[in-house]
Every structure is written in C-alpha cells, then in structure tokens.
Amino acid sequence: MSNPQTQAQQRALLIMQVRTGQITATAAAQQLNLSRKTYYQWENRGLNALLESQIEQPPGRPPKAADPEKEQLRRKVAQLEQQITELEQVQKLREIVQQLQASDAKKNSRSCPPSSTKPPPPSPLPG
Q1: φ, ψ for residue 89 (rounded to 5)?
Q2: N or C, where is the chain less crowded by C-beta within 10 Å?
C-alpha cells in the first residue's frame, strides 16, 4: 500500500467483500493491519460517504463562491438604480404640479375682472 488512492481502493474492496459475506471483518482487519474495532470505524465511514454521495443534487454546476467586492458593487448599483427611479418620479411629480399651478393661474386670470378698470360713475344725488 504505497499511495493513498491504492489504500482507499483496497479498503473499499475489503469492505465490499465483508458486506457480501466473502470474508469476515476479522480477516479484513488483519489484511489492513487494524483492530476489528478500527475496521468497523472505517467501514461505517466508507458506507456513510457512499450514502452521502448518492443524495440528489441540483442539476448543473454548483455556484461559484461569490466575490465580496463584486457583491458589494452589485448592491451599490441596485441602490443607485433605485435612487434614479425615485428621482425620476419626483421630477415627474414636480412637472405635474407646475402644470397644475400654471393651469390654475390661467383660470384665475380669466374669471377675475382686470384691476385697472375705471370705477363706476357716481350716482346722482337727490336734490
């Protein structure tokens, strides 16, 4: 057993042989130079890893780790876009208010007589 992958393959093969009844746990432990208790710990770890690997994963590649600087910039852009939208709405409201004020001023100037008109002539006094 020289490299870790070869060791892992040998352990996996021995675990499968024990699980299928081809050899005993004691024989597998002897081949791995382990106690039987330690063999069972390896077996449990291996079987748990097998089960874990079979859990349904979402399709596609896993998302990349987020770059904190990019995320901060994205949040800032979203905030600035929101501010632009709000300012555009405020500007539209100001324009509407100005139009309404101009319209009211025109209506008021038409309904009131001009202030430069001559006063009516005095009524004759009784005599």
Answers
A1: -65, -40
A2: C
Same structural domain for residues 48 and 77? Answer: no
Domains in the chain, number? 2
Residue 79 lies in a domain: yes
Find tokens 């870790």 and name the residue. Answer: 4
Residue 26 lies in a domain: yes
Domain containing 88: what range? 73-102
Query: What is the pLDDT averaged over residues 9-20?
Result: 93
Q: How confident is the model at residue 64 (pLDDT cuts 50, 70, 90)?
A: confident
**Residue 76, phi then psi, degrees to nearest 5:** -65, -40
Residue 52 to residues 4, 47, 55, 76: CA-CA distances in angstroms? 21, 9, 6, 39
Which DSSP string corresponds to 34-81?
--HHHHHHHHHHHHHHHHHHTS---SSPPPPPPPHHHHHHHHHHHHHH
